[in-house]
Specification:
233 residues, alpha/beta, TIM Barrel, eight-stranded mixed beta barrel, 6 helices, 24% strand, globular
């Protein structure tokens, strides 16, 4: 009986050790993901995306941790605008960081109104990076039905108007759900910005130009985490 009890205690100790090792390994993997950025020897140009919900940005600190450029939320849909865009743009320029503007596209709203919203916020400036258009929202829940053909046609109209204003071809920030729904990467010939934590994204069926490699990079300068970007060399 005593031998059986001793064996049971040994098994419990082993099980406890295995569980402890699993917790340590899981904790390290989580920590590593929170702090991971791609190797600069492979991707020498890296940057950050600043969203409308981010707090005040310390641009000097961003540059110090290795951000070479930034994409900043400027406008969304037909009327929404980031009130911090102008300040962020000025502060980023003062820190001598390259900057681009992001518009969050809404397939439920007319292209002309969305383009007018963007050009009202974003100045015509040759020093700006190519404009980025985030394609994440589908038209499936629009109050008025929008056909797939209309989504593509309106997006093309929007791109033409924005590119006329900026003088540069736009880059499409193509989210997985939108691409699954519309296969837009094969329909619209623009450079792609794809999103997938740590693993290189391949859902567009063709090479990407920019990649959100870590959507929640943990640093001392951003409590919510940074969206860390790399450019294809």
């Amino acid at each position: 009986m005593a031998r059986r009890k001793a064996g049971g205690k040994t098994r419990l100790r082993l099980l406890g050790a295995v569980l402890l090792l699993a917790l340590i390994a899981g904790g390290y993997a989580w920590w590593h993901m929170q702090h991971w950025t791609p190797d600069r020897a492979i991707y020498p140009m890296q940057g950050v995306e600043i969203g409308a919900d981010d707090e005040d940005v310390d641009w000097a600190a961003l540059k110090a941790i290795g951000a070479d450029f930034a994409y900043i939320d400027a406008s969304a849909s037909a009327f929404a605008r980031d009130p911090a865009f102008s300040r962020n743009l000025g502060d980023a320029n003062a820190a001598k960081m390259k900057v681009g503007a992001v518009h969050r596209y809404d397939p439920c709203q007319p292209a002309e109104k969305q383009a007018a919203n963007f050009v009202t916020v974003v100045p015509r400036d040759d020093n700006l990076l190519p404009p980025a258009v985030e394609l994440g929202m589908t038209a499936d829940n629009c109050p008025v039905k929008v056909s797939d053909a209309a989504v593509e046609s309106e997006l093309t109209t929007f791109l033409n108007q924005v590119e006329t204003h900026t003088g540069k071809p736009a880059i499409l920030k193509l989210m997985p759900g939108f691409e699954d729904r519309y296969a837009m990467a094969s329909r619209v010939d623009r450079n792609l910005w794809l999103v997938r934590d740590r693993l290189q994204p391949d859902y567009a069926g063709r090479p990407w130009t920019m990649w959100t490699a870590n959507s929640a990079l943990n640093t001392a300068i951003a409590s919510k985490g940074l969206r860390w970007l790399v450019v294809q060399p």
